[in-house]
């Protein structure tokens, strides 16, 4: 099997132009097949604020109303997706920016309302991901940049959690590629003590993750990342690492002392 | 040669949800290869206004500064592109939404400053359009939806006139397909008298167009459309028609009495 590197970058990497440029340069240099999944949360929050739209978050996930889906589609699938794709091309990386809508890449259903109404939010149908098309694009030498926006069968645009997109794509592609998944953000990994940047947990298994959730070490914004990371490693993805976007080269090259490695 | 239908829709078609839905339903039913190019001008102007960014137009073309490129990328490549692509899929049309950035579909250079500084505006390099990829997508049964945003070799995002995108794609694809180009907007065609909606000119050649430009019948917003239409018919495109988006079926089916047909 050929290697496939799937990298998800968080909003903090995108917000700082210098950080983003460094990351793009390093990412462009990774040899072989690669897919980049991005969020863009802070930009969406800023645009919402400028337009007088209130941002609501529950357990690290955004509540998406009719105005918010417009904002996130514009920011994620528009500005951030094209900015990153253009920057990659300027770094000699043949990139194609897509949303889940395009070519029915990421079919979703609207999340049913239970105790929380997340609004216009999509839940992925992992078995329906258009892996054939992704494979065609990768095999033609393209790098795919994915924005976490898709639509249901009724053509309704829906917001998807970017961490979930990354793990779902990694899981479905692990059937045909030796797939590694990297969650990159502004910290060096999962921290034992949130106030101590040096307290990186080097290895953690899915059982230990459950304990850290119970004792409150893992909270809020980290929840979707950790939960989907644990799911990915249990579902066929060869390697799952949480680390600093500034260290993407070291993480991909398996240099010791970088990131948190998730094991089963 | 197989037929290829290239349709460009203007901002007024997109702004009205009912008009857009009707158009999408009709467009989805067109048999064979098709490409849809969209603008989205009014939405961009509204978002600019909401954000306190002044909109400047000269001769029907938008002046694009650093804030405006963000707005048009968000509106064109984000909201409008994904909205249309999602609606097409809901109408059983396998659609892929792209900007000129993606897969280096539409390479551009930044327009040099002469008497007017258009700002972050791209001029197409028609010989460099990625026709191979477009062909691959069309032959796999996909309909391609194109937003008029691209980037130069330095990765700088640039705004392109959607009418120019439509004619440039039509010209380059006419080498491999029997290509028809339709400019669709809210009027029935090119009007002899702008105040009389029934005064549609049924046929006009490139020489007559020059006369109508001189006597002022063709002005402002119509200029890019007419100029690029004339260029397309002179450069290998089989058929070029300007007409009402509500009549796309009749225009494609060559029903007499619809639209303005441009001839050499």
Task: Describe the overall structure.
Two copies of one chain form a homodimer. With 264 residues, chain A is an alpha/beta fold. Chain A has a single domain, classed as Carbamate kinase (3-Layer(aba) Sandwich), CATH 3.40.1160.10. Chain A is 38% helix and 23% strand. Chain A contains nine helices and 14 strands. Chain A has helices at 11-15, 17-28, 41-50, 66-90, 131-139, 162-173, 206-214, 222-234, 248-252; strands at residues 3-9, 33-38, 56-58, 61-63, 95-99, 108-110, 122-124, 143-147, 149-151, 157-159, 178-185, 203-205, 239-244, 260-263. In chain A, strands 5-8-2-1-11-13-14-12 form an eight-stranded mixed β-sheet, sandwiched between helices. Chain A has a two-stranded antiparallel sheet with strand order 3-4. In chain A, helix 6 (162-173) packs parallel to helix 8. The first copy, chain A, is globular, with a radius of gyration of 17 Å.
Q: From the 3D structure, determine the CATH topology of chain A.
A: Carbamate kinase
Q: Examine the secondary-structure arrangement and name the CATH architecture of chain A.
A: 3-Layer(aba) Sandwich
Largest interface: A-B, 39 and 39 residues
What oligomerization state is this entry in?
Answer: homodimer
How many β-strand runs of chain A? Answer: 14
Helix content of chain A: 25-40%
Number of domains of chain A: 1
Radius of gyration of chain A: 17 Å
Average pLDDT level of chain A: 94
The side-by-side strand order for the widest beta sheet of chain A comes to 5-8-2-1-11-13-14-12
Sequence stretches where pLDDT stays below 50 over 5 or more residues of chain A:
none
CATH superfamily of chain A: Acetylglutamate kinase-like
N/C terminus separation of chain A: 21 Å
Largest sheet of chain A: 8 strands, mixed
CATH class of chain A: Alpha Beta
Element order of chain A: H for helix, E for strand: EHHEHEEHEEEHEEEHEEHHEHE
Number of helices of chain A: 9
Q: Tell me the strand percentage band of chain A.
A: 15-25%
Shape of chain A: globular
Structural class of chain A: alpha/beta
């Amino acid at each position: 099997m050929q290697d496939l590197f799937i990298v998800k970058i968080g909003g903090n990497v995108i917000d700082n132009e210098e950080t983003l440029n460094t990351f793009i340069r390093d990412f462009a240099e990774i040899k072989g097949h690669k897919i980049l999944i991005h969020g863009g949360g802070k930009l969406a929050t800023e645009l919402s604020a400028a337009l007088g739209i209130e941002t609501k978050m529950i357990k690290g996930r955004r509540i998406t109303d009719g105005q918010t889906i417009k904002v996130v589609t514009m920011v994620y699938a528009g500005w951030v997706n094209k900015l990153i794709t253009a920057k990659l091309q300027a770094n000699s990386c043949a990139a194609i920016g897509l949303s889940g809508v395009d070519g029915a890449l990421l079919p979703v259903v609207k999340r049913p309302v239970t105790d929380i109404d997340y609004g216009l939010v999509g839940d992925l149908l992992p078995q329906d991901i258009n892996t054939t098309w992704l494979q065609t694009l990768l095999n033609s030498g393209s790098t795919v940049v994915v924005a976490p926006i898709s639509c249901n069968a009724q053509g309704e645009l829906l917001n998807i959690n970017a961490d979930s997109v990354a793990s779902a794509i990694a899981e479905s592609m692990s059937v045909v590629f030796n797939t590694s998944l990297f969650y990159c953000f502004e910290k060096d990994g999962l921290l034992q003590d949130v106030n101590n940047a040096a307290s990186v947990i080097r290895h953690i298994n899915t059982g230990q993750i459950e304990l850290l959730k119970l004792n409150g070490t893992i909270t809020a914004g980290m929840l979707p990342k950790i939960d989907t990371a644990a799911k990915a490693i249990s579902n066929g993805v060869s390697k799952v690492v949480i680390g600093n976007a500034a260290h993407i080269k070291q993480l991909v090259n398996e240099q010791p002392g970088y990131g948190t490695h998730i094991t089963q």
